[in-house]
Specification:
The protein has 121 residues and is an alpha+beta fold. It has a domain of 77 residues. The chain contains two helices and seven strands, in the order βββαββββα. The termini are far apart.
């Protein structure tokens, strides 16, 4: 597979990135552009049912949470946020601070490039 790799299915786009200097480093960013609040809550409950300890993240989108998982010598962190009908899931082989930063940047760039045009009078 060549990186970055992108997969589009309906209202979902998933992008996979590999680290520049470390083949064990990876980040996946998933955009779901048609998510309701109830679906967001349902997906969070699904992660909790699978045994993940889900924690809240303040000041990221309308709602956001994270969970981490240890795999071998790596930590995999997932941040999920909701902003209007947009859900962004960022998961990668790093701790909360770097993955959270990627999620914040991803949201800001998405909002910048998908901003509604302003009317000029």
């Amino acid at each position: 597979m060549h990186y970055p790799a992108t997969l589009v299915r309906g209202a979902t786009t998933e992008c996979a990135y590999r680290g520049l200097h470390n083949n064990d480093t990876a980040v996946i960013i998933r955009y779901d552009t048609d998510i309701s609040v109830s679906d967001f809550v349902k997906y969070r409950a699904g992660f909790e049912r699978r045994g993940f300890k889900v924690g809240p993240i303040a000041d990221l989108g309308d709602q956001a949470y994270y969970f981490t998982e240890g795999t071998g010598n790596s930590t995999v962190t997932t941040v999920v946020l909701l902003k209007g009908p947009l859900q962004v899931l960022v998961t990668g082989t790093a701790g909360l601070d770097p993955i959270g930063s990627i999620a914040r940047y991803t949201l800001s760039q998405y909002l910048e490039t998908h901003r509604a045009p302003t009317s000029s009078g």
